[in-house]
Amino acid sequence: MGIFDSIKNALGKSDSEPEADVTVAPSQMLRNAGIDPSSLKFEFGANSITVSGEISDESDRQKILDVLSEAPGISTIQDDMSAAAPAAVETPVEPDTEEPEAAPAEGGPRTYTVQSGDTLWKIAEQMYGNGSQYMKIFEANTGTLENPDQIFPGQELKIP
Asked: Is residue 142 part of a domain?
């Protein structure tokens, strides 16, 4: 028995004990890749994962499958996602007077007041037409926000 074995035994560790497995949840993996997982559901089997829910378009499907294929211990991905019907060409809608968004002064920054149920992803979709740009809003508000997943109703956010 060597000195390192003695230290392991003193610490209560043995060679037969597996190391702690650190895993990242599929929803977090998707968030890290700039994909909103809020409409998806995950089911797990032996070395497999089933993904279901509605996605906005087919390109999102491939992005999701690509990210999940990188998950350790997952060899099979069952795709039960459905793509939303293609939206008709939308014309911009003027905000209601009750809309929390303040109209920007000429050349001035826009602001948005967080409502119940809002996420930075939803706000970015509303402001930019693309939810994956939520980090632009977070970075513009680092003095107010500590975490992009924690916003609260009533917060006033700068929209760059």
From this structure: yes
